[in-house]
């Protein structure tokens, strides 16, 4: 084994476990029997893929141990003093070993045999050492051995492997389960996205781009050559030996398809290349940006613009876990072959099971997409703000607005093109929340979890704001001074000495419409405070305004509509240049 310092080890383990976590669940004995018998578990509604093998080494979920009190977990006896480590931490430590060390350690005990044959360990060795120069051989271990020792007969590395009795591990079992689980029908039922065909550019801007709402567009890529031509044979023939970005490596298309045909793992490699049109210009010639997305202000940077377009190819089960698109851009995604399941949450709603850092630079989420569906999707059924969902099929395009969280999983082998862009409407700030660090509001805003005391917040969270690009507004307000707190701003106040103050909340004409919208929310009765009649506050307030100021609400509504119309008339560039003297401008 290679030696390493404990400090470096813990530092790397911390980095590796920061963004992904495993939410292990103890599964029933019925599910364990499924491992051996390949039967469907009707009580749970889960179905294992018909071609799925049983777990390579006979690992069972930990819950089965409690149903067999006479059994002992051979996992613990075979690890010795290391049995106190969690499975995840133990695998992180094994990730520092080379292939020879893993092979030697596999002979120590049955437990070490199971852990050292964990496929992600060998996947990392292949990707780190062989880069893209490998031919997948049915398993990552066989692939590594075949490439490193060409004379070795890899057929002796049986996929079934050595079975270990009474080995219980939720972490290892769930890894196998997520790789072999079919999408449950109820995960595919909800389809609440707005679908449009043949709408005008003005209608798209007015109803979707400006209000920042998703929409699925039909029929807008029917003239693409890509839609007619792009299949496996055509792409392999056209691209030849060109290598495309696949995770951390680059691969030829024929090699990638060879991998995707055989692979069955929790997180399949995804071909996601931002330079495809430069590598193979004909690929760029066979599609064009749909008319709705042709204003792209990032284009003024020319070759200096950030990556903005990608070809995406992946097998069933591949995809992207929850994320927000970079650089505050909006995006469109066109499916050319196959189909994709989409789940989207608006900017002010963080998906369940997803934990972004306060500044948004990092996101902790489940290890795999299937794991999120297993453990968190069901929670959204009871949410008042339900996610937007749909299945996007070949020939369809989905618009993903700026700031929206989204998850995508391929339901079958799929080919798509996606592009990020900035339009004039992106130049106007969106109304979305920036939560203070350590503060966790519920999705509907009815409850807020925060530190017990103000001092505790300063001790544990204030320091994090030093590195934020959007730093908080801070001040010390002294006697005789008044501070204005705008609507919707999070704020904290602490008295530095004995203090006496008066504060008052108010509604002016400038925020009257916003307040009425707030009071109309379905859960307004749980959010309103300071009044006995929470249910009827909206109607009572609106009626009183109309009685005291006749026509005021209609006038404010009319002015708001005029403001929106004026914004639609003037693009960003029209507002800062004189188009009449030949200045370049974007237009629809």
SSE layout:
Elements: H1 6-18, E1 20-21, H2 29-37, H3 63-66, H4 74-79, H5 87-94, H6 99-105, H7 110-116, H8 119-129, H9 140-148, H10 170-180, H11 185-189, E2 195-197, H12 201-209, E3 215-218, H13 225-229, H14 232-239, E4 243-246, E5 249-252, H15 253-262, E6 271-273, H16 276-279, H17 281-285, E7 309-314, E8 319-323, E9 330-337, E10 339-345, E11 355-356, E12 363-366, H18 369-375, E13 388-393, E14 396-400, E15 405-410, E16 414-421, E17 440-441, E18 448-449, H19 454-460, H20 512-519, H21 524-527, H22 537-548, H23 552-569, H24 572-576
Parallel strand pairs: 1-12, 2-3
Antiparallel strand pairs: 3-14, 4-5, 6-7, 7-16, 8-15, 9-14, 9-16, 10-13, 10-15, 11-12, 17-18
Helix pairs in contact: 1-5, 8-9
Q: What does this protein structure show overall?
A:
With 588 residues, the protein is α+β, with helices and mostly antiparallel strands. It is built from 24 helices and 18 strands. A 7-stranded mixed sheet has the order 2-3-14-9-16-7-6, with no helix packed on it. A hairpin with a 2-residue loop joins strand 4 (243-246) and strand 5 (249-252). Helix 1 (6-18) crosses helix 5 (87-94) and helix 8 packs parallel to helix 9 (140-148).
Gross morphology: globular
Percent helix, as a range, is: 25-40%
Strand order of the largest sheet: 2-3-14-9-16-7-6
Helix vs. strand class: alpha+beta
Kindly provide the radius of gyration, computed on alpha-carbon positions and rounded to a whole number of angstroms.
Answer: 28 Å
Largest sheet: 7 strands, mixed
Total helices: the number is: 24
Low-confidence stretches: 1-18, 25-43, 428-433, 570-588
| Span of the ends, CA to CA | 64 Å
User: Got a strand count?
Assistant: 18
Mean pLDDT across all residues, rounded? 82
What fraction of residues sit in β-strands? 5-15%
Oligomer: single chain
